[in-house]
Amino acid sequence: MGAARIIVIVVAFVAAIGVVVLMRGVIFDKKPAQAVAAAQPMAQVVVAKRDLTIGTQIKAGDVAWESWPAASINPAFITNGAAPTPAPDTPIKKAANVVQTAAAGSGSMEALYGAIVKEPILTGEPVLARKIVRGGQGGYMSVVLQPGMRAISMSVSIETSVAGWILPGDRVDVLQSQDSDGGRITRVVLQNIRVLAIDQKVEPDKDSKTAIGGVATLEATPAAAAVLIDAKAQGKPLYLALRSYADLGGPSGVGPEALRAKPLAIKVFRNGQVSEVGATQ
Predict the structure, then answer these.
(1) Mean pLDDT of the chain
(2) Residues with Cβ < 8 Å from 205, sequence gap 6 or more?
(3) Boundary (domain end) residue, out of 111, 133, 155
């Protein structure tokens, strides 16, 4: 065998070894994407296991712990307060500080049972402390009432509640019609009032688009509640008029005609005799 041929074989052999070493480094040193994703610190966060509507009382199975990137924890999330699982070469003290900063409302899962949902929570969504009221902090109606507002009820029927198309959460006007010397007067007693419930239902039955009941519970200011009580005391029927959703930010409270239409007794002196007639102001 010639010297040139031996040199070629040696060079080829060395090149083959180099290729093998190179490929080995690529195959064995490359970390899978899953391993990279798992390298970040993870914490335990409470999430909803099903859609939780307003007024729902949380029970076992409604919520669960779920791993969540510690760096993405919102201060309002509910965590277990423990240090997250650190990434390789990540000091545990540094990872723990992330959770301690964001552990508002942290505690055991059992502490959430019995809490009432104030705002809707979707499946898989982290449970925020502001969206629930823990047990012992009030019932449903006191939870959903806005600060300073009152819940007041009035009798309704299919005829006086738009054939049942008024649902909890809708906005309505309360109207009343009565006779006067000048004919019949219909006045707006309350305007743009939120409906809290129909009977004891705070939401319509599943797959139902109407809510038929005998009592509507409304959210009103103290002054508006007093006006409604006065209107009920007159014994004349009260009607609910459904408003557009676009009116949500409009004026709300006592109707502009509530005071003007209040019945008054006027004394009339005629030919030495005194009589009283009804009027409105």
Answers:
(1) 78
(2) 211
(3) 133
Q: Which residues, including other chains, have CB under 8 Å from residue 275's CB and lie 6 or more apart?
A: 267, 268
Quote the longest CA-to-CA distance of the chain. 153
106-112-114 Cα angle (round to 5):
160
What's the rounded Cα separation, in Å, for the pair 172 and 239?
10
Three-state SS for 176?
Answer: strand
pTM above 0.90, yes or no: no
Q: Is residue 184 part of a domain?
A: yes
Has residue 19 been placed in a domain? Answer: no
Higher-pLDDT residue of 23 and 141 is 141
CA distances from 10 to 15, 17, 22, 102 (A): 9, 11, 18, 64
Q: What percent of the chain has pLDDT over 90?
A: 36
pLDDT of residue 138: 67
Least confident of 13-17, 115-119, 159-163: 13-17
Q: What integer is the mean pLDDT of 131-157?
A: 84
In whole angstroms, give the CA distance from residue 34 to residue 22: 23
Q: Could you tell me the CATH number of the domain that includes residue 103? A: 3.90.1210.10
206 within some domain: yes
**What is the residue range of 92's domain?**
42-133
What pLDDT score does 31 carry?
54
**Ordered DSSP codes for 43-94:** EEEEEESS-B-TTPBP-TTSEEEEEEEGGG--TTB-B--PPPBPPTT--HHH
Within 10 angstroms of residue 98's Cβ, the number of other Cβ atoms is 19
Amino acid making up residue 173: D
